[in-house]
Amino acid sequence: MRWSNTFIPTLRDDPADAEAISHKLLVRAGLIRQLSAGIYSILPLGWRVCRKIEALIRDEMDRIGAQEFRLPAMHPAELWQRSGRWSVMGDEMFRLKDRRGAELCLGMTHEEVFTSIATELRSHRALPQIWYQIQTKFRDEPRPKSGLLRVREFVMKDSYSFDLDQNGLDHAFKLHFDAYRRIFERCGLTPLAVEASSGAMGGSESIEFMAMSDAGEDWIASCGACGYAANLEKATSRVDAVEDGAGLAVPEPFATPGVRSIEDLVNFAGGAAAERQIKTLVYSADGTTTLVLLRGDHKLSEQKLADGVGAVAVRAATADEIRAALGASAGSLGAVGVAGVRIVADAALQGRRDMTTGANRDEFHLRGVDVERDIRVDAWLEVREVAAGEPCPMCGGALGVAKTIEVGHIFKLGTKYSEKLGAVVQDEAGASVPIVMGSYGIGVGRVMASIVEACHDASGIVWPVTVAPFEVVITVLNPTDVETQEAGERIYEALRAQGIDVIIDTRDERPGVKFKDAELVGIPYRVTIGPRGLAEKKVEFVRRRDGTKRELPLDRAAETVAEAVLEERR
Q: Is the overall model pTM greater than 0.85, yes or no?
């Protein structure tokens, strides 16, 4: 390829709306352009990177015996209605009708479609199967941002395993886990594998692969001592035992004028420390009013609440809903004596006495509350969000909390979809049994952005050789000098002959412009050819990653460069 006739629209300034480093650099380096909010065009250099990421994914999927498909992006509503997810997905699903009025959607994922094909599997002898595709998905993201990290149209590798039993699923899950490790390593990433909530996907277990980044929107808790790691939606920690006093024989009301929050009550004369308060939140969980009780210094994880009560949609109740349920406003709420409303309490409150909570009477609270004596709790759940510094549930070491980007997610689906869509086989005894499934996803564009987040410096992107749009750029400093031009062409052709992905820059530009463009785009190696060096039969060889430079003999330049590239590919 020649820089002079390749579309590489580099920019000197960051886009005004960009916050994430990857967003800034992918636009500036000419890899992507925004069409509208959350919708991006992938330009030639970006497409070269995506194709290389996809090639790595295909290589590892083929290695575990997966078979590639290409399925429709437009799906009939009936399929999603049979699985129960037509209503579950809510406003994030793009829905439309054809000219006959039939309801359709743009696929967010393909569990339903793959499962419908799996209904053609008849016998246990046809199992196991692993099927995959790399295809466009659609999600009506309410707040698209950060370039390719949160979008409405994206390319994803989604694969699905089909097995006779749980042991088969466990094996397929492990195959994918190991394949994902290799994929990310080959892409230059070292994400943490963390426990995660399965959310709307369902199933018994899921693991996310999370790349550390300040641009991420997922938070994880991890332990440096033993390796425990989990998304905050799933993470737990040890709660230190608390010694409570005997308390009161019955809760005692007291006036709390002006108290509207946990902190207000901490500072109120005769109030209580946050860890001795019961925080009462009112939520709607699939339309059911639910009181959620936590220790005053703890924070609710809405995903844990949804998982705990088996709800698809949870939201904070409105002021009118709160008053209708409890007869008071937020700031004075409590669960003492409440009947006819579901009450969920965090496990950290179990056995607690002498606590303080709202009295369900504006500007009044109760002290001396014994949780198990005075409150009718329907379910004790782990619903609090873990905080940095809390003890690890495995070893007791201090947990750290960090922002991350989810680059992959694998799920044990079990029989959720096969039962609903009729994917059954005959087992060895001749009985019909539902196929046991797994689902496994990697976002290609998100991986590309995550690589940039992890691999950049002040001058631009620093691509690993394995995914770089080009492995080598040959920069000809004076293309009007015939000898210099011819030397560049000879090295260019020699590298191409050895299978090196190379681009030659013979533009009539100043050397500084060419150098800055090569650094911004992030090409791993640069060979610079100029009349001065050529007079000594030498060229300059620069490694982008650390800026190291050395002179190479002209007659061995192509061979030496090829050796360096091939060594880094391994």
A: yes
